[in-house]
Amino acid sequence: MYDHISLYRKRFIPDETNYLKDDIIVYKDDHIIITKWDTLKPRKDIKRGMSVYFLDKGYKVSKLYSPEDEVVYWYCDIVKTIINEEKNEYIFEDLLLDVVVYEDGHAEVLDADELADAVEKKFIPLEYVSMALRQMHDLLNIIYGGEFHKIQQLIADYE
């Protein structure tokens, strides 16, 4: 149904773009894309996941599962979405800031040091930094405001 859509993850550190060829799109509309996937590289703690990309909000929220199929945590990437409608491609640039939400509701911000390093080394444009901070602020407001369950339900609806 969604076979004609290509998804890519672009990273600044290291500078790489990965075609997410094995991700399976289970739902798409003008605002979100929901995928299920197995890890790109084998890991002992995480085997697979489901993600919802918020195309107009600037973040991706993933539910990560252990090899025993238990939820490990929810991982939120702050991203910039680039859509090439002509090629039906979606490129998600990782803006380095991440938020982990644990099953008990505790949230932790990760990789702010990586964003600082990227700015100092001029790997990332300054306008991306302000964008990333605003997007993370919006996501944290959802989490701390008790509304994260709505995002979790989006994924649950397609499991």
How would you sum up this structure, described in words?
With 159 residues, the protein is an alpha+beta fold. Helix content is 23%, strand content 42%. The protein is built from three helices and nine strands. Strands 1, 2, 3, 4, 5, 6, 7, 8 and 9 form a nine-stranded mixed sheet that branches. A hairpin with a 4-residue loop joins strand 7 and strand 8. The protein starts with 5 loop residues before the first strand and ends with a helix.
| Number of E-state strands | 9
Poorly predicted runs are none
Secondary structure: helix percent: 10-25%
Main sheet makeup: 9 strands, mixed
Q: Return the string of H and E elements.
A: EEEEEEEEEHHH
The structural domain count equals 1
Q: How much is the radius of gyration in Å?
A: 15 Å
Proportion in β-strands: 35-45%
- The oligomeric state of the chains shown is single chain
CATH architecture: Beta Barrel
Q: Which secondary-structure class do the elements indicate?
A: alpha+beta
Q: Specify the number of helices.
A: 3
CATH fold name, please? FomD barrel-like fold
Average pLDDT over all residues? 95
CATH evolutionary superfamily? FomD-like
Compact summary:
With 159 residues, this protein is of the alpha+beta class. The protein is built from three helices and nine strands. It has a single domain (6-156), classed as FomD barrel-like fold, CATH 2.40.380.
